[in-house]
Write a structure and sequence with these properties.
Elements (H helix, E strand, L loop, with lengths): L26 H15 L4 H10 L6 H9 L9 H8 L11
Helix pairs in contact: 1-3
Length: 98
């Protein structure tokens, strides 16, 4: 049996899903939105961000970064100095507003 993909119009992406937006009512969601905003402000892809974290001494997978940005997981406290160094900001500047 051959599976066929449904027809798509030009406005519909062929692969992947749209990124899940973080729940801004939770701390993890606000932190994820902050991290994603800092990354996008610098024009980095998730992979480029992951590579820069590795250069700063923190080895993580791309899926881990995406789960932080979606607010599914919160980065451990010991990663904040690495995250701050990667973005060139103070660790406290990573924290989302209340």
């Amino acid at each position: 049996m051959v599976r066929r993909r449904p027809a798509t119009d030009e406005a519909t992406p062929r692969m992947g899903r749209p990124p899940k937006e973080p729940d801004l009512t939770t701390y993890a969601g606000r932190l994820g939105a902050r991290l994603r905003g800092l990354r996008e402000k610098r024009g980095w892809t998730v992979e480029e961000f992951r590579e820069r974290l590795h250069e700063a001494g923190l080895s993580v997978r791309g899926g881990t970064v995406r789960s932080w940005e979606r607010g599914d997981r919160t980065p451990p406290a010991e990663t904040f100095p690495h995250l701050a160094a990667t973005f060139g900001v103070a660790p406290g500047d990573l924290l989302p507003p209340e």
